Amino acid sequence: MELNQNSAAVKLKVAIQKSGRLHDDSLRLLKDCGIEISNGVNKLKSEASNFPMEVYFLRDDDIPQYVEDAVADIGFVGENVVYEKKKKTEVVEKLGFGKCRLSIAIRRHEEYNDAGFLSGKKIATSYPVIVQQFLTKNNIEAEIHEISGSVEIAPGIGLADAICDLVSSGSTLFMNGLKETETILKSEAVLIKNDKLGLAQQQLLDKLLFRIQAVKKARNNKYVLLNAPNENLQEIISLLPGMKSPTVLPLAEAGWSSVHSVLNENEFWEIIEKLKAAGAQGILVVPIEKMIV
Ligand code: ATP
Ligand code: ZN
Question: Is the pLDDT of residue 215 over 60?
Fold first, then answer.
């Protein structure tokens, strides 16, 4: 079989979703890590031109099995799939994309106070393992009806009283007359690895992880440049978090300085407002490509 072909040089074998919600972001992450992969349409396998890496394009549901079997050394897949498939793999790193939640939803007009609602009911889902764990944890007996897709139409056609499905905006639920009542798992894409990875593969993975972490950090931070009147310089510097010594350069215009710093995405807007209030002007915000600390 083509997938098992051995080649002399050690390569990191990476499983990525063939098409779907994780495909583009997974390839973009590799690209941002400086790894070039040609992605031919309908191709099962591809090779990186500048990193010892082979990429297999697979259905996301199959990725944990391929990684457990060491057909792939690592895989990019949703946590929801990892927990549902329960294969022997190890989660190495959260990747910051493919964020969604696995939630219970019921018909909009019905009342749901707690998970007790589900007692004796029929729940349609593509995630029977995770749903059963949730029911067991809450001491509830209910019937799980496993379906592989279009779960949201199940209550409308009388197939189930409730569903458990992936949600991001909630608009699909709304269009089907349903409401989300409880989140049972928050998920994002993660990198998993075979739990008996060889030394050479582990070294390549460490190299890749170093790059992924630098890209993730850069995506979460912005480089900020601003002009500050010297009389407010101390106040402005004190608003910049975690930077003991931001870069401060004198401007050609007397009495003004240029301040450069790095801000985290989460606190970004709040700090920008305070900087403005403290007299900062000409604020420039620049994306960071890589951040190695
Ligand atoms: P495949 O053909 O590979 O089996 P799929 O139809 O099962 O694809 P997608 O819909 O492409 O899968 O979703 C892949 C993953 O994207 C999900 O398992 C989940 O981790 C993540 N995801 C993020 N947001 C959502 C969402 N709103 N709905 C479904 N999945 C989402
Ligand atoms: Zn799938």
Answer: yes
Confidence grade of residue 5 (pLDDT, cut at 50, 70, 90): very low
Count of domains forming the chain: 3
Residues 149 and 266 in one domain: no
* DSSP H or E stretch at residue 187: strand 178-187
Closest CA to 192 of 49, 58, 4, 5: 58
CATH at residue 91: 3.40.190.10
Residue 67 sits in the same domain as residue 200: yes
Residue nearest ligand 1's atom 21 by CA = 98
pTM as predicted: 0.89
Question: Residue 42 above 90 pLDDT?
Answer: no
For residue 76, the CA-to-ligand 2 centroid distance in Å is 13
Predicted pLDDT at 164: 98
Distance from the CA of 137 to the center of ligand 1, in angstroms?
A: 26
Tokens of 203: 């070294």
